[in-house]
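Student: Please help interpret what follows.
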Amino acid sequence: MARRLVEDGYRFKSDGSLNASGTVEFKLAGTATNKDVYNEYALTTVLANPVQLDANGRSNSGSGEIWVGSGSYDITIKDSTGATINTILDYTDDVIAA
């Protein structure tokens, strides 16, 4: 099963401003090992990890979307300076980010 990562979870900073040129990193939960993410539901096109966000805080993947596959992910969202602005642990395709 695939799940689209909800943009509000990474597109905006806590102050409501866009996370322009930020990044989103995906790791196998509990490890430092990168875990693949994709730009479409079929999970065929793997995105670069970390995923670079554009000036509007969206993935610059072409579709503008980030899809996760099966298993658990640890997700680190960073701003354009590389500062961590949010961490989501044990995200699975069964959970929608808030």
Strands lie at 3-4, 23-28, 37-38, 51-52, 67-68, 73-78, 84-91.
